[in-house]
Design a protein that fits this description.
A hairpin with a 4-residue loop joins strand 4 and strand 5. A seven-stranded antiparallel sheet has the order 5-4-3-14-13-12-11, with helices on both faces. The chain has a three-stranded antiparallel sheet with strand order 6-10-7. The termini are far apart. It is globular. The chain has 474 residues and is α+β, with helices and mostly antiparallel strands. Helix 2 crosses helix 5, helix 3 packs across helix 4 and helix 8 runs parallel beside helix 11.
Amino acid sequence: MVRNRSPCRRPAEPAELEDLRTVGVATARWLRAVGITSVSELRWVGAPQAYGRIAYRFGKAVNRNLLYALAGALEDRPYNSFRDDEKRRLCQAAAIPFRLSMKAQTLALIVASGLAPVAVAQAQGIPPYAVAAQPELYRAAVAAARGFIRDTMRALGAPGAAVTVVKGDTVLWSEGFGYADAEQLVPVTALTRFRIGSVSKPLTSVALGLLVEQGKIDLDAPVRRYVPSFPEKRYPITVRQVAGHLSGIRHYRGTEDLSQRPYHTVLEGLKIFQDDSLLFAPGTRFSYSSYGWNLLSAAIEGASGQSFLSFMQHHVFEPAGMRHTVADHVDSIIPFRAHFYTVTEDGKGSVVNAPFVDNSYKWAGGGFLSTTEDLTRFGQLVLAGRLLEPATVRLLWTPQRTSNGKETRYGIGWEVDRDAAGRERVGHGGGSVGGTAFLLIYPRERLVIAVLVNSDRTFVGATPRIAEYFLGSP
């Protein structure tokens, strides 16, 4: 039989009263960071993670006075100011289901609830995100965006999603929705790693930019200078043309994006398309090609003398502090990797597991896993000129043109345009089997937003709409 137990049933020891405020304030800060702003939200997910965090960080079990301290910190009032009816409400809100002893339950909560994200980050030496200094300025924006995401997820049948919004150096909002694993009911947290699809291209563009700055890659040189094994075509193809989808290299055909074959090297993956004719003379047309970015990863290897994944790890991810961004190796145990889903096309729209795929043929074009917090951190650093020189960032963000002068609205690994209000925005969307992604930056407003979903039935295309809630705030 499953009963509910409230922490209010455990009395406080007198010695505990001295540090109630310290524990309450610290835990409330974490709760706000993951989107819980009131005690009424401490149910099923919030309560177990909050209690697990307290046990993990402070070595304390939650009792009634500690609960009041936590509530007071969340609601900005003294812990001893609650009326009796309010205390009953708090106790009801904080009750959690249990079928274990409290000691065993605390251990189970730490493991089964996915751990408190900030506690895990601190244990790994990763500094947690700062909480907005004046979050009340964006409270309405967060509430509106949260409501839109929840309503849209229900309508689409998307199992899980995450969003992070950063302005300048301040995290305005970071929250997970639904399940990373719908079968085991594992909630999405700040640590959940999603497939990011073509958002891998902006990450790879920074590697390309670094080599340009070092004089190791000339964007206007033939790509064969760096990949001599790539077959010679009727027309020469430059690195810049490949990076801007102007090369004439084709995109996926048929079910190629459902590949289940492992490719052990970047050059091996080029064999899928390298012998095919170009679709057009390079520079004359824009035609999106993920395979072109696979070729660029081979050029990065040729220019740097390192494997592509090693170069990305040591020269992009580590300097950016992106400790949760990795290649989607299917044979590896990757902590916090989401499960991936799709929906049936029988009219019922049932959520089912996405088919198995091996993305080792396209690391640069769409093969990485990441978190929304890693992606927004990456966006912040690119915007601030801390990964590349500002002139190089502007190079990546400058739209290319076809040979007849038509602007493509695509630079080097970044889509570039303006919204209806005339604000410049750069970013990239991503779609892969069982995962969708969007990274969006408003340079002038210093706003960075990332949205990830573990399904190909998605709403990431509405990321600009979510951004609007925050662009209209102070």
